[in-house]
Every structure is written in C-alpha cells, then in structure tokens.
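Lab notebook page, bench 4
Experiment: in silico fold of construct C2
Operator: M.H.
Input chain length: 193 residues
Purpose: comparison with the prior construct
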Amino acid sequence: MTACRAEWMLASVAALATTQCGPPPGAQVRADVQTMNREQTPDKLFERGKAFASIGDLTRAEQYLAAAVDAGGDPKVIVPMLLRVCVEARRYRAAIDYGENQLKKHPQDLKLRVLLGNLYAAVDEPLHAREQFELVLAQRPDDAEVHYVLAVLLRDTLDDIVQADRHFREYLRINPKGPHADEARGSLLKSVP
C-alpha cells in the first residue's frame, strides 16, 4: 500500500468517525422530548392560540386553545377565547361541545349557560336553548336579558306565546325602560301601559 493511499484511508476513517461521534441516539431523543415538553406548556399553547386568532387563522387558534385547556391551562381564561374563536369561525357545534365540557366541571357558570343557550338557538335546537335559559333564571330570576331572549325564543321559534308573554312581562317588570321595552310591550297578549 502506498503512503498516499494509506493517508487517504486514514482521512476517510477520521471523517467517518467524526460524523458518527456525538451523543448517543437516545440522548438526542430525550433532548427532543424535553424541548417539545417545554413548548407544550399551557401558557405557550395559549399564547400561540391568541396569536393565530389575532391574524385570523381561526382553525389553528382553536387547535392551540383546545390544547392549552387539555394541557391544564386555566379554563376560565382560555375557554371564553376558545368559544369566541369557534363562533367567529361559525363552528357553533364545536363551541357547544367545548362549552358543554366546561359546564360538566363548572355547572354553576351561568354566563356560559347563557352563551350555550344562544348557541343552541343558532343551531336550531330551541329546546336545549330553552333549558339553558331556564336553568339560568332558576338561579337569577331577576335577569332581564335572559327573560327577554327566552321570550323571543318562545315567541318566534317554539310558538308558545303564553310563556313568551310571561317572560316579556318579567322583562318589563325588571327593566321597564330597557332597550327591548318597546318590543316586549308590543309582544304582550294584552297590552299594559
């Protein structure tokens, strides 16, 4: 073997050795998993969801916000934004699913119940909408706005003008000069001054 050929072989072996050296494959996998875990924290997922929502990528926003909730993020902060993203994307059924899941954990969240009632009305499920509104009124009987939306649902969708009349009257009792007072008065079975 010539000296030139021997030097070439040694250089080839040295080059091969340097490309094969480095951390063992298991160490690289562990490092990649650690990086991924740092990137999958609820806060980072929530921030990414907000960022995608701000640029109008509602699909990715929904995915990141849902992942943030699943990763243990604060649902009181994340779920309202998640529902808003779904509503903006006209994904009412998805919003209902997220809302219902949240209600299983927090059944006393009346604000969420009102939103769910409106979502059910939007997807033409008036009986579910009515149920949500009635559950709210059982806890907050003097909520004029809920009486109003329930009255409109009863009048326009469920054709129950007697019950609609009852809720329009409650709305007027609670908020006689409210923004819907004229419509409520006009919808009564027997007018009141």
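Observations: DSSP finds eleven helices and no strands in the chain. The radius of gyration is 30 Å.
Next step: discuss at group meeting.
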